[in-house]
Amino acid sequence: MVSCAFDRRQSVWLWSSLLLAGILMTGCSESPEGRSSVVTGKVTLGGAPVSTGTVLFMTEGGHAATAELEPDGTYTVQCRPDHFKVAVTPPSDPDPEAATDGNAPKPKSSGQAIPRKYRDLSSSGLNFEVKEGRILLIL
Predict the structure, then answer these.
(1) Per-residue pLDDT tens digits of the chain, which is 139 residues long
(2) Can you tell me whether residue 19 is helix, strand or coil?
(3) With contact defined as beta carbons under 8 Å apart, do 19 and 42 qualify?
(4) By 3-state DSSP, what share of the chain in percent is helix, strand and coil, each rounded to 5?
(5) 50 with 79: CB under 8 angstroms?
(6) Could you give all domains of the chain from N- to C-terminal order, each with its CATH number?
């Protein structure tokens, strides 16, 4: 397991990036009232885009929306307007037993370790109110 220490500047940069990503973010499932939002964003770490992983949005009521990160760190997700906790998780390692030719696939890597704090909804500290319409959120 890789551990990461963030200094204040990196932490501020990550928070700023998450905020901008949220503003950019587009999408979440439609609410029962027919309202929906599209959230578009970008995830960066130390000023560089995080190119692999997943952005997870979760309400207290259990409604979730996810988006895979693009190589440039951007994502788009559609969701209902609500208050969300947000986490950014690294890609899962492939199942070595899933390879049919005996060659296990190599794990994906963005070259950057996402700090453990941001991988969990309860510890990320990333909370956003998503309103109806289009929103940009930079993480």
Answers:
(1) 333 444 555 554 454 455 444 443 433 444 455 668 899 999 998 889 999 999 999 999 999 999 999 999 999 999 999 999 999 999 877 666 665 665 655 555 544 688 999 999 999 999 989 988 777 777 6
(2) helix
(3) no
(4) 15, 35, 50
(5) no
(6) 8-91+109-138 (2.60.40.1120)
